[in-house]
Each structure stands twice: as C-alpha cells, then as structure tokens.
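> example.struct
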C-alpha cells in the first residue's frame, strides 16, 4: 500500500471533490473484473472515485483495504459509500509512437440570439483536424491546396 503525507492527502481530496465515480461496485462485491476496471482507471486517471452500493460499513472498509493492497494504491478518503483511491500514473511506454496530426477536438460555439434580447445559444461540437469554425459559428472543412502545374512537373523529374 502506498503512503501519503497529510498535505498530499489533503490536496488529493480537494482535487477529487470535482470528479465523478468511474467504478461502481454492486451486490456481487469486489470481483476480479471490478479490480481490473479500478486498475485500468488508476492507470488512466491516477485519482479515481469508486461508489459502493451496500449498507455494510465493515464490508466497504475491507473492500477499500483490498483495493489499496492489491493495486498498490493509496487510500485518500472514505466518505459514506464513496472511496477515493490514488496511484501515481506510469510514464508513457517508450514503444508507443506519437500520433501526428491534431485529431478530434471539442469546440464551444456561442451564437447570439437574432433579436439580441434572449440568451445566446451555446453548443459543443467535435471538430476533425481539417475543420474550423467560422465567425458566424458555422463549421467549414479545409479545401485541399492547389498545386501549380509547373511545380508538379518539376517534382516528377
């Protein structure tokens, strides 16, 4: 089990306040599949919340200890049916190749109302790498660049 100082634990508690539980433990309890999901969540996020559906406090405490022992994680907070667990994220694997390009990105589009007296409309849109948002709030796809006949003829020699 990982040990944290009180200052680290306090900082992690304040950071965990805004996140939602990503793993839910039901009546089947702490199964190997649930442990695997918690492990995957810790790999990705580092700090996660786990919600336990069950009224037995002693069972929740044993689950909390089991999670921390098996996954080499640190207990941050146990409040009610929520368990907050932390494990430092591993460095990105060296064998992984960096992906070029921008990929998908989320953009918020705010359009004022036509009359100007009502609230503006706010929409979140996923844009591809070759798309942009115009001043009017429309999505435009980039056109392929034109190549000159001279440059293409010189390049083929």
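> example.seq
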């Amino acid at each position: 089990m990982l040990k944290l100082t009180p200052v680290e634990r306090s900082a992690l508690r304040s950071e965990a306040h805004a996140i939602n539980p990503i793993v839910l433990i039901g009546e089947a309890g702490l199964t190997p599949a649930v442990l695997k999901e918690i492990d995957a969540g810790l790999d990705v996020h580092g700090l996660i919340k786990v919600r336990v559906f069950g009224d037995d406090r002693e069972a929740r405490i044993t689950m909390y200890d089991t999670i921390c022992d098996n996954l080499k994680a640190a207990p941050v907070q146990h409040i009610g049916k929520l368990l907050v667990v932390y494990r430092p994220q591993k460095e990105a694997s060296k064998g992984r190749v960096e992906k070029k390009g921008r990929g998908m990105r989320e953009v918020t589009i705010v359009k004022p109302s036509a009359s100007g007296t009502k609230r503006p409309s706010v929409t979140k849109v996923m844009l591809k790498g070759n798309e942009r948002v115009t001043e009017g709030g429309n999505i435009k796809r980039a056109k392929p660049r034109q190549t000159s006949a001279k440059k293409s003829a010189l390049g083929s020699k």
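> remarks
The helical segments are 6-16, 32-45, 57-70, 149-155.
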